[in-house]
Amino acid sequence: MTKLIGENVLMRIFIGEADRCGHRPLYEALVELLRKEGFAGATVLRGVCGFGAHSVFHTQKLLDLSADLPLVVEVVDSQERIDAIMPRIDEMMGGGMITLEKATVIRYSHDPRKPEK
Q1: CB neighbours of 50 closer than 8 A, spacing ≥ 6?
Q2: Which of 70, 74, 89, 91 has the fewest C-beta atoms under 10 angstroms from its C-beta?
């Protein structure tokens, strides 16, 4: 497994909760792709409210459980690995936005000999 300590890239994929890839939610398909490709991890964050390119306001309401809330899929890895996976991610997305920024990883561990704290 590659150590991520040092300079890497943070990729954020901004999508909606209702976005799909085939029969699955897009966020699930993205996370599964990243897992299969051996990325160290990915996190999906749900926004409380937001709007995108079409300026449609999405918000969570107490009685509206079917809201199309904003989601962000975050993953950190090397520039090379991010560049290599980008064409496959582009094929999966019908809309949304992807941002990339430099990230310095100061701690990363997956050593089965060391217990998690």
Answers
A1: 57, 58, 69, 70
A2: 91
- Cβ-Cβ contacts under 8 Å for 95 (sequence gap 6 or more): 15, 16, 19, 52, 53
Does 111 reside within a domain? no
User: Tokens standing for 78?
Assistant: 């090397």
- Segment holding 80, helix H or strand E: helix 79-92
The total number of structural domains that make up the chain: 1
The number of beta carbons lying within 10 Å of the beta carbon of residue 10 is 16
For residue 93, the enclosing domain spans: 6-105
Asked whether residue 51 is assigned to any structural domain, the reply reads yes
> Residue 1 domain-assigned?
no
One digit per residue, pLDDT tens: the chain, 117 residues? 457 889 999 999 999 999 999 999 999 999 999 999 999 889 999 988 777 766 666 566 655 555 688 999 999 999 999 999 999 999 999 989 999 999 999 976 766 665 555
Check which CATH number belongs to the domain holding 30 and give it: 3.30.70.120
